[in-house]
Write a structure and sequence with these properties.
Helix content: over 70%
Largest sheet: none
Shape: globular
Structural class: mainly alpha
Order of helices and strands: HHHHHHHHHHHHHHHHHHHHHHHHHHHHH
Distance between the termini: 30 Å
């Protein structure tokens, strides 16, 4: 019987190479594009019925804000509560004046991290006055304080619950994913619709944007507590509440301090953008500088935000590095007490407002320097801008805007299916169909063009710098502080060098988004390559692999998940920044959102454009996240 089986066996037929199917599909799509070009293109219509309907809804809500039960008994009370909280911080900070704020901040910084952090805090707070932005800085600090307090009051309990319950964590994770994908602009339109404009709406928008890291990192901290410590507490008869207070929270304290730090950083990024719905603070100076294309107005406010971010970041990072039971020494307590008391004692002696004679006006010198840079570097910046526009931007935009919408949808479906699987592909298709139904197809394709070009350049730069850092500890030590500082800066700050070099053009937003998204991409690539087991690297080297072969054949394939995660983060951050770039000439969906806030009659256009931006972000995020979760092609082939 066995010999019969052997005799009739048929030799296996050679299959097609792996590249044949993708190449064949690409040829089919190219042929379909040539045949159906300029048909089914869904051009943009600013006066589409859906835009006008949302604008009319906004008018109806404004007319019935004080007689509708939803507003009278729920939303208005939320607005009043948040406004009262902001007023409380605002009044307290103004009552302290600059001597009191400087002394109290210095004392808190000393308790958090010692005299060096205290010196940084005192210098940082004084810089607000020296830059001539004391009042705006205090307004921003009050708004951040109110938003962070609300974020932590809601986020930490949810994070603890998610850390203790796997079911809650699974329910919360997709919601947090969508919240973090949403560009900052997308929060503003609905909040302006339901909470009007002003400080309360700005604080609520900032709170919503800042709450995901509070929940995520708190859940991670609680779930990471040693099970042995929890079991020991339970065996001693402690209740669940006692175990939480005596075991979970002390052991998770350092990581939870990181949650507070990240919440503060996210809040500082959002308070600037919240100025578009009339939130007070430094955002007003930046928006005014953007509208006038004057870096001299924007730069002091941007520097003040960076200083605020650095001071608060160093204070919270110092707290996070402490052990669960460490306490300040008596010397630190005494020094902090003296510093705080000195600041409070000087309140009746010195003026509350920062003296004008102690300020430095840098508007004119900065504007002169920018004009000099524009004149001197004009040939180089123009060449880079024109080359990128003609070689990448224009051809890709022409391809996406002249192709039939159904062909683009089919292409995205095919790519997503190939890269990430069935569910992400269907999600991507659903997002594209929703964008088409919303009437924002053409502008969404233009936005996707800028995102694609920015992500491509970001990944190239991120891979080069990440590989260099992973293979050279000395280079990594030099680069790491620069990445830390870059990730501390709010998103709007990156518009300053872009605007100074390239004026208000579409390329300005791309350049700003690249320098905004490169730091996390570099860090993820570096960490992924460093995580490759040393034994594998040594085995490849002993087999005679060169340095280049070791990188291409071993390190990059084994760091695939980290690189795909870097691509995902680059896409999300680039999309957020490209939308912000609507303020500096990026056009497309970003401009629609800005127009919706600045022109009351175009509110519907801005609102729908914000939704389309979210859909675009969800589509790109699901494709890259799905690719990161799937096994590599080699593993799929071997299985």
């Amino acid at each position: 019987m066995s010999s019969t089986t052997t005799a009739v066996s048929v030799p296996s037929r050679a299959g097609l190479p792996r590249w044949a199917a993708p190449v064949g599909a690409a040829v089919l799509f190219a042929a379909a594009y040539l045949v159906f070009r300029d048909t089914g293109t869904l051009p943009h219509d600013k006066d589409a019925p859906q835009f006008l309907a949302v604008t009319e809804l906004r008018e109806w809500i404004d007319d019935h804000r004080n007689d509708n039960p939803l507003f009278l008994y729920f939303l208005n009370y939320i607005r009043l509560f948040v406004g009262g909280l902001y007023d409380l911080f605002h009044t307290a900070l103004y009552a302290l004046g600059w001597p009191g704020v400087t002394g109290v901040m210095g004392a808190l910084a000393w308790l958090a991290g010692g005299w060096r952090v205290a010196l940084l805090a005192v210098a940082g707070v004084s810089a607000f006055g020296v830059l001539g932005l004391w009042q705006s800085s205090i307004d921003t600090l009050a708004l951040v304080a109110a938003a962070v307090l609300l974020s932590l009051a809601i986020g930490i309990p949810i994070g603890i619950w998610a850390g203790l319950s796997e079911r809650v964590r699974r329910a919360v994770t997709p919601v947090l994913d969508v919240m973090q994908i949403m560009p900052t602009f997308a929060y503003l339109a609905p909040l302006a619709l339901f909470f009007h404009i002003g400080a309360p709406a700005g604080a609520i928008a900032t709170m919503i944007y800042a709450i995901p890291p509070a929940i995520r990192i708190t859940a991670l901290a609680i779930s990471g507590v040693s099970p042995t410590a929890v079991e020991a507490s339970a065996s001693l008869g402690a209740t669940r509440g006692q175990t939480l207070v005596k075991v979970y929270l002390p052991l998770a304290r350092s990581t939870m301090a990181l949650a507070v730090n990240q919440t503060i950083m996210m809040a500082l990024s959002m308070v600037v953008i919240a100025n578009l719905i009339s939130a007070p603070g430094l955002g007003g100076d930046i928006i005014r500088g953007l509208s006038r294309a004057q870096v001299g107005i924007m730069l002091p406010a941007g520097v003040a935000i960076v200083i605020m971010a650095v001071v608060l970041d160093r204070m919270m990072m110092s707290v996070s590095r402490r052990g669960p039971h460490s306490k300040p020494s008596k010397v630190d307590l005494a020094a902090a007490g003296v510093l705080g008391a000195a600041g409070l004692a000087l309140i009746p002696v010195l003026p509350r407002e920062w003296p004008e004679g102690w300020t430095i006006n840098v508007v004119a010198p900065v504007n002169d320097a920018v004009r000099w840079a524009e004149t001197t570097w004009y040939p180089v910046t123009t060449f880079i801008k024109d080359l990128t526009t003609s070689a990448l931007l224009n051809p890709l935009e022409r391809l996406l805007t002249t192709a039939p919408w159904w062909l683009v949808a089919l292409a995205v479906l095919a790519v997503a299916w190939r890269v990430s699987g069935v569910r992400p592909a269907l999600t991507a298709l659903g997002c594209l169909l929703a964008i088409a139904l919303l009437g924002t197809w053409e502008h969404a394709m233009q936005t996707m063009t800028t995102v694609a070009v920015a992500v491509l350049v970001t990944l190239v730069i991120g891979l080069l710098l990440g590989v260099a850092a992973a293979r050279s500890p000395r280079y990594s030590a030099v680069q790491r502080p620069l990445l830390d500082a870059a990730q501390t800066m709010p998103a709007f700050v990156y518009l300053l060098p872009a605007l100074a070099l390239f004026e208000t053009t579409r390329f300005t937003a791309i350049f700003a988004s690249i320098i905004y998204a490169v730091p996390p991409v570099v860090r993820l690539v570096e960490d992924g390559i460093k995580a490759v087991p040393a034994t594998v690297v040594e085995a490849a080297a002993s087999a005679g692999s060169t340095s280049g072969q070791l990188l291409w054949k071993v390190q990059l394939p084994m760091a695939r998940r980290a690189i795909l995660l870097a691509a995902n983060q680059g896409i999300v951050m680039t999309l957020a920044m490209v939308v912000v770039g609507g303020l500096v000439g990026a056009g497309a969906l970003g401009y629609d959102v800005v127009l919706g806030f600045s022109q009351r009659t175009d509110f519907g256009l801005g609102f729908v454009a914000g939704i389309a931006t979210v859909l675009l972000g969800v589509m790109l995020d699901r494709i890259t996240q799905g690719a990161e979760r799937r096994p590599s092609p080699r593993k799929r082939k071997s299985s």
